[in-house]
Amino acid sequence: MKTSYQYKIKPTKQQAEKIDKTLEMLRHQYNYLLAQRFDWYEMNRCPIDRCPLICHIPELKEQPNYYNQKASLVKLKIDRPWYKEIHSQALQEVPKRVELAFDRWVKGDVNGKKSGRPRFKGEGQYKTFTYTQFKQHHFVNNKITLSKIGDVKVIVHRPIPDGFKIKTVSITKKADGYYVTLCLEDATVPTIKPDFNPESITGIDVGLKEFLTTSEGETVAIPQHYRKSQKRLRVIQKRVSRRKKGSKRRQKAVKQLGKQHKKVADKRKDFHFKTANNLLKKYDVIAAEDLDVKGLARTRLAKSVLDAGWSSFLSILTNKAENAGLLVVPVKASGTSQDCSNCGVKVPKKLHERWHNCPHCGYSLDRDHNAAINIKNRAVGHSVLKAKSLLSSSRIVLEAYTYCEAEV
To answer: What torsion, rounded to 10 degrees, do the Cα atoms 366, 369, 370, 372 define?
Structure first.
């Protein structure tokens, strides 16, 4: 099992300067390697490499990839000796990031979905570097030893669980300081709980009236963290816009604005974690809609959709379920609000109609509650859930058979 713990660190003034300098040099290298990719792509994007007329065709350059760009880092340290101040693992991560960003644009992900053209990172936009290998004895007594930086104080607000080993360490600069993220792994922890109950299942329907509604009719109120903070954000944003670009006072206002945005994001994240934890305490299986949040964010409800953070919540819920040995089942979202959960007949409703009244069977209940029941019903036939149910039933039969043999 893998999990991540994030702690705040308190570097000294000299250590903070080293971290900032490292991030800035990595940013320059990221932009340089990305420019290499763009140059090659613009010169070789056409598949035609022959001309029937007598003309000069330039020789094709070698295509930049992760391996030859990684190999070029050796020459980089010779030409620019100050890059020797950066740990080799943190530097080798840069071509990997460039490879991922470029491939998502050109080839797409495993589902074929492509991202936008990668952007060059401006000053302060490169915020994280990673040590891909880490020794356990470098994190003791609330201090972590970071190569090329030194021993840094860590605020350990919760201990690392017994048996877990640190695999990677990432240093991140945020609006309110510096953080370290530890990627932990313990191969002995089972992926599914021994007492997993596939019958303990609920469906959840996320919305803008209530954050979510379960198939049992329970609701969780939507907090609207961003909308409640808009007045304060507007004041600070005006302060930023009125100050001269490049001035110290503007930098101070920008930092204050970043802290306020982070405060909103932290509140939303805390709400998501607590809501996911409460659901997983009650149920072993949770069925949720497989939503296209990016598409919904292009509508006139974009601010409310992004403020709710459905995508982030479902990601947190899935990860916490995996760590707890439980299951989150994604189901197709289309028609869950329109179909009657009692008879299955489609009952068209506009968005402002918040109550489901079926003219065929007379079933009447809240629209979101009806959708949650449909989501649960669709998940019951899920192949993974069936497999877990068969395993659970076979385990019960085996235990009963063993018990009978012992009695005989």
So the answer is: 160
Name, in order, each residue with C-beta under 8 angstroms of 110's C-beta and a sequence gap of 6 or more.
none
pLDDT in tens, 266-294: 999 999 999 999 999 999 999 999 888 88
State the Cα–Cα distance between residues 171 and 20, nearest whole angstrom: 11
Same domain, 44 and 78: yes
- The answer to whether residue 391 is domain-embedded is yes
Is residue 67 assigned to a domain?
yes
C-alpha 113/C-alpha 292 separation (Å) is 12
The rounded distance, in Å, linking the Cα atoms of 339 and 247 is: 58
Q: Mention every residue, 6+ apart, whose C-beta is less than 8 A from residue 324.
A: 193, 280
Whether the per-residue pLDDT at 101 is higher than 90: the answer is: yes
Q: Which structural domain, as residue segments, surrounds residue 319? A: 201-218+283-407
Q: What tens digit of pLDDT does each residue of 172-183 get?
A: 999 999 999 999
- Are 9 and 178 in contact, with CB atoms under 8 Å apart? yes
Say how many domains are in the chain: 2
Sort residue 301 into left (φ over 0), alpha (ψ -120 to 50) or beta: alpha
Q: pLDDT value at position 196?
A: 73
* 175 and 121 housed in the same domain: yes
pLDDT, tens digit, 9 for 90 and up, residues 8-43: 999 999 999 999 999 999 999 999 999 999 998 887
In a domain, residue 193? The reply is: no
Residues 209 and 77 in one domain: no
Let me know: does 114 contact 105? Beta carbons within 8 Å: yes
One domain for residues 13 and 102: yes
Q: What pLDDT, on a 0 to 100 scale, did the predictor assign at position 398?
A: 31
CB atoms within 10 A of CB 84: 13
Is there a single domain that holds both residue 30 and residue 126? Answer: yes
Q: Collapsing DSSP states into helix, strand and coil, what is residue 330?
A: strand
pLDDT at 215 over 60: yes
Q: Give the pLDDT confidence score for residue 189 in this predicted structure.
A: 66
Please classify residue 111 by burial: count the beta carbons closer than 10 Å to its beta carbon, then call 0-12 exposed, 13-18 middle and 19+ buried.
Answer: exposed
Residues 127 and 14 in one domain: yes
For residue range 169-210, what is the model confidence (pLDDT) as tens digits? 999 999 999 999 999 988 776 666 667 777 889 999 999 999
